[in-house]
Design goal:
heterodimer, A: alpha+beta, Aldehyde Oxidoreductase, domain 3, Aldehyde Oxidoreductase, domain 4, 7-stranded mixed beta sheet, 5-stranded mixed beta sheet, B: 157 residues, alpha+beta, Ubiquitin-like (UB roll), DNA polymerase, domain 1, 5 helices, 16% strand
Amino acid sequence: MSDNYVGKRVKRTEDPRLIKGLAHYVDDIALPGTLHVAFVRSMYAHAKINSIDTSAALAAPGVVAVYTGNDVAEKIGPVPCASALPELKVPDHRVLAKDKVYFVGHPIAAVVAKDRYAARDAVDLVMVDYEDLPAVTDVEQAAAGGPVIHEAFGSNIAYKLTSGEGDIDAAFAAADRTVKQRILHRRLAPIAMEPRGVLARYFPGEEELTLWSSTQIPHLMRTQVALMIGMPENKLRVITPEVGGGFGSKLNVYAEEALLSWISMQLAKPVKWIETRRENIAATIHGRGQVGDIEVAFKNDGTLLGLRYSVFADLGAYHQLLTPAIPTLTGLMLSGAYKIPAIQMNITGCFTNKMATDAYRGAGRPEATYVVERALDLVAADLGVDAAELRRRNFPAADEFPFHTATGLDYDSGDYETALNKAQEIAGYADLREKQRKAREEGRLIGIGLSTYVEICALGPSQAMPAGGWESATVRIEPTGKVTVMTGASPHGQGQETSFAQIAADELGVNINDVTVIHGDTGIVQYGIGTFGSRATAVGGTAVYVAIQKLKEKAHKIATHMLQADASHVAFEGGKYSLEKAAAAAATTGTSDPVVPVGEAPAGALPEPQTEGKTSLTIQDIALAAHLAKELPPDTEPGLSATYFFEPKNFTFPFGTHIAVVEVDRDTGDIEFLRYVAVDDCGRVINPMLVDGQVHGGIVQSIGQAMFEEVVYDEQGQLVTGTLMDYALPRASHIPEFELDRTETPSPVNPLGVKGVGEAGTIGATPAIVNAIVDALAPFGVKHLDMPVKPENIWRIINGH
Amino acid sequence: MKKAINLSVNGVSHTDEVEPRMLLVHYLRDVLELTGTHVGCETSLCGACTVMLDGQAVKSCTVFAVQADGSSVTTIEGLAKNGELHPVQEGFWERHGLQCGYCTPGMIMTAAQLLDRNADPSREEICHGLEGNLCRCTGYQHIIEAVQYAAKKAGQS
């Protein structure tokens, strides 16, 4: 192998089509005769449907069909939930509401028309006779016995779960001191810039269906949609073209995907639905949505003894794919980066008259990190100890890994103190504290916030996952020497076309331009799981790596045969198999040229590999020979390709330290960032440019959560933040200039040593920002603030309102 | 009642009959099949649909096609000249100014307008200039660096 690409800032191979406007997202695919779907959605949070009159809509110009719940109830199975928890209540949620609606945005009818304007017009002509029912939107009220959403269950409690290890009662009994804090995690909207979209085309003769969908999980979708509509799975092909962001919101199987597939079969026409932003905020999953109490038991010297988190999880009105599982991920990460002998989490998962919650970037782990990092600051304040020093006292040492937590995990590797030291050094922590002291004397409000996070990535071992935690890769060298990599980890902005090509090019010693990474088409790519849970590189990238080792074993055997040498005398270096004495000469570093330039070889019969008198053969020579199959060792399969399904034995646990420095304006309550330092450790880095991009994006989503974002429903369950005018997202003018650095602690879980970085920013940054704001307001006795922390809240504190 | 419109898009003249309510973005995407311009919010807040209308960056989700009658429109597909990337496009590639790419065409058109008006913007001026465009992936820092790269590159040529 060579090291021309891995670890370097390789520019993305996917970018040219994207910056020229020539890439294809679902809505960019135009098939002749396509019909367009628009949805009638509930205006009520909770109501009985007495009747639906579709006659006026059906008579409208351009309208082809209108489908309601009655039309599809017997035809399409329920929206799937993959979570399995003890005694979990699972509502029978159908693709269209039949007798009752239970959240604003609940789809009631699908209008199919010749163009999108006609479909939208006819939506207003569908008359729904609703009978309003009392709604419940507050999760604690829902738990306490508010209006029951699913009558058959008798209450709104979907499940209760207690988890953790160690004697929690003994920990609190033995404590010198304790702190307790109620903490809110608001509902957030993921807001991928490309809304969801579906295009379905049925081929009646072949009895095959192609479904284009903006999703993170093409193969899982194929299985689930096939089950929902009763179609053989191998007759359904799911294609994810360009996907414009996901953040977990497209790690799901939604009603629209199955319904559009079914409609296409009824009408034998292509049908398309492109989500509007209003639909996206109302009827695409939300994230977070927890309210709970964190309690910490500790000794006077700051040693942590126990931690208890009792939480109400706002699940929404029904379960999407992973809805009930998300709060359980919070429970797994409650040990944070610390030695805590006893931990207990008590979850009460409740139905409310709102859209379902599910995985949003971090998916349960940001909640854990936030409560733990806020709690550490509460302990530090209680003891009058510096926040960094308290953390340092409770870290496991670098030689204590693998480190077992009282949440039942084994952290793979870590060196938390080194990351903290580095971040403090970059920030000039001691100077900052001095600057803060002086500023306070001048009446200025400067705050310094830390977060020393650890996260769980590379999801994950199949034992811990609802539908397989492995990932697949096929690597093939074509007759012309071009390398094709097929991955099941279909990306949506992460850049796997580049990072996986870097791995392949180095392992095969070829030019990166000779490598094409194919993904997101179940008709081409072997079964895969998808991109989520910061798993693509650690699980999918490893599958690519191991598949190449398999391929090279075969290539070595062929090379040995062709060079007429002993296997032990043939070495692979720099893309060439060479006789031992020639190996050193062949091992030239530097990038090899792309193979077979256009026009160089005559078309027609492929050239025979020339082996006469050669002491080395390129891997492309071997691929051609393997394809022509005229000079292979006995019992050797023709062709040069290998497939590998990688099953990780553990999760990976990236970590780091984020330090935010803010100044609060006394007059307006405005928050200004003075500094933002992040030292992240995601194991070995394949492409530092992509890693920086992931961290930046994650931090800014944290800025959103900490300071702006909140999905608001009123008491009647009306969605108040239904457009981007009301749901505030961070903009370019809101961000500080980030100062990033890294430490690199390889993971022992996979041969690449990589851990994952997709969610680090959203996990590590939120508590650092809130801790900084709370620290700025410490002179006012502030110990905790709930997100989003807005200037108005701050102004009220400063002015005593 | 359809209306006839005539406009130049990326230097090519088009005459079409469109419904008066047809949005410019739908005309570009559905009629002319220039799908590089994206729709992200329908309320003029995200900027994914930004194009140049007679040299001014506009959000084409809130312009009717009939309002562009007689005008000259440049979309992302028309930004590269003679196969050479516009400095802003080059900057986005060099500085990793995009991840999922959905906001990118609008972001690039806005950045190009920004540099037309101010060839040497400060970081603060770039941030202010990009306020009308949302990106959910990059955290903006690499976009800002991409614009700085483009300003430097354009200044050198």
